[in-house]
Amino acid sequence: MPTVEEAGRVFTDPTAYADDERFHLACALLRSDAPVHRVEVEGFNPFWAITKHADVMEIERQHELWLNEPRPILGPAVSDEQQRQMNMTIRTLISIDAPDHPLMRAITADWFLPKSLSRLDDRIAELAKRYVDLMAELGGPAVHSGVVTRGLPGVGGRYTAEQVAARQWNDQLTYLFKLSNEEIIDGGKGGNATRHLNHSCNPNCEAVEEYDDAGRLELRFQTLVPVEAGDELFIDYGLTADDGSSPADYPCRCGAENCRGTMLDLGPEAEPHPGLVAR
Ligand SMILES: [Zn+2]
Q1: pLDDT tens digit string along 202-249?
Q2: Is the pTM of this model over 0.85?
Q3: 257 Cα: distance to centroid of ligand 1 (angstroms)
Q4: Structural domain of residue 89, as residue ranges?
Q5: Residue 18 vs residues 2, 11, 65: alpha-carbon distances, Å
Q6: CA angle 195, 199, 202 (to 5 degrees)
Q7: Do 167 and 261 sit in the same domain of this protein?
Q8: Residue 144 C-alpha to ligand 1 middle, in angstroms?
Q9: How far does residue 235's CA lie from ligand 1's centre (Å)?
């Protein structure tokens, strides 16, 4: 059984959040022995741990007494200081108090009442299915602008479908990364080290598309299995040849048990998805 002091430290110890038994044991002890407990741990500004539901609700109701600002989220002292220096440029509902909070809350509060949400059930189910399907599709053989890209005129690595069509491509083999929105990334121009990832039919990495803060589609490479320092990273190129080449023109010798013998994507003609194209 931990002491009350030890129990209070679960809130500042990341490993405690991955150990349900330890975390709930600590909270149970705090609820019974110290339901309002001041935690003082090195690296954190002191805070009160409130562990009884009734107390939490009581605090929630007293907006004048209990404030959200300036520390709405528990974090290390260094991040408190960063927040302070940033002057709270991002003001969300959980980080602001009256008079702004009730005004901003009133804008959308009705939308999230159970009655309002129940009207959206069908639409939510439809959207959920669409995006889960999309994720499943993106999780398939995905790729990267590996290998060599060379001899392309101009600089900068990103083209729209129109720019690709208008561009004079030279005769040398060029691999480009095509996104599901038809944009093209040329990893050899203004790219980075990920362009050196080689192909494997049994890859240890995959490319994932995601939108950045500006709403632009970006690529992220993530591992599919644990890798050791020094391991070579591979992705499945899932290559598309836009000149109608046969699979034999892009042979694969990766040696994987499930090697399909070609770097071309042999999957069914599916919805737009990210993958390499050969030009
Ligand atoms: Zn292979």
Answers
A1: 999 888 888 888 888 888 888 888 888 888 889 998 888 777 778 888
A2: no
A3: 8
A4: 4-112
A5: 17, 12, 33
A6: 135
A7: yes
A8: 15
A9: 11
